[in-house]
Amino acid sequence: MNMRTTKTLSAAAAALALGLTLASCGSSGPSDSSANSDSPSMWALTGSSEKIFKSSVDSWNESNPDDSINQEFFANDAYKTKVRTAIGAGEGPTFIYGWGGGVLQSYVDAGHVEELDQFLADNPEVKDRYIESVFQNGVIDGKTYALPNNNMQPVVLYYNKELFDQIGAEPPETWDELMALVPKFNDAGVAPFSLAGQSKWPNLMWLSYLVDRIGGPEVFKAILDGDEGAWSHPAVLEALTKIQELVDAGGFINGFSSIAADAGADSALLYTDRAAMMLHGGWVYQNLKNDAPEFVESGAVGFVPFPEVEGGAGDPMNVVGNPANMWSLSATASQEQKASAMNYLKDGLFNEEYTQAMIDSGAVPAVKGIEDQLAASDDKNFVEFVYGLAQDAPSFQLSWDQALSPAQGDAMLANLDQIFIGAITPQQFAENMNATLGK
């Protein structure tokens, strides 16, 4: 065991233990803000952007006591359940953290979120700061209901360079090359891939990329449009088959279905040399900087695009993931809360300090004119890689569990979990999901 691994092993063990704890009992997050507070409330996620959000709000509150914000943080899986329940009961936070897509559409349809077009017309510099393709993720039926609040997050293939050097391998550029690496790493006593299967949504990264590489973005568009039998498209069935072939070949860490992503246990397997690769979002790099700085500083972490599938119709430059996370404002907040919240969106969000802090964390803010700052970053290789992926992608597809309606997204994750553990066939998955179309 090398020195770097020794330094990080105790932290990794703690992360894995917490991951298994969350897998068994869940996490409820902090207590609620007072519903009677005159200050706007903000719910956000623990993890990669937490320090930046907290620092921004603390600084804002100090400088703007009349517009102060009550902020709380929740683990990803717990938040998604909690916020839907709270919003449905009319008790959601003033600032609603989201991903856009079908979930935002459901909030708009139910009248739960505030339209922001007049605010943007009165403050045109706010819209002008954003990369247009990312900004559009908060637009529903021509009206704006959410603004990007953090970084562009394409899903990338991370790999442990030291483990690759040990077996004399290069990161895969094609699916066949990926599959050929599986027995080599298994023979070396290393899991080919880390995966937090208990959280379910990490499984989706595999399906969305494979469907895109095999059939192109039009396949998922047909699903979004509710086309009859869309889930039975040959690209979907082939992608599911490839996933099960990868599982059967021993592609994932033993016990992957009991590992939770919120605790960082999947990342820990990568930086403690127990797994060679991990398919995950751009936000993971920030987590690695926090949890295993020596792994990042030593240059041991590598990152490449998802491999091409030979003969596939999808452009290998396409990416999937999150263009950025978003802030929406609750329609049920008081006028005073909305006014204070809009002041923060105008002057606190993506000001100079906020943007630089995000870059310093190893993230790529979803704003224009930051090329020089990225080039000067200590994480230049990664941030310019991510910026290039996002800028050059012919298609940047939003994570499916957010793009779909909540009911469809939940059903998809549940059925995909059954695919990964071998409980259903690709045909059964398609039949189950076709029954959700239009819901």
Automatic annotation (TrEMBL):
Keyword Signal among UniProt keywords: yes
InterPro entries given in the database record: Bact_solute-bd_prot1, SBP
Residue stretches in coiled coil: none
Pfam families: SBP_bac_1
Signal peptide (from-to): 1-23
Keywords: Signal
Bilayer-spanning residue ranges: none
Name of this protein: Extracellular solute-binding protein
Organism listed in the record: Arthrobacter gallicola
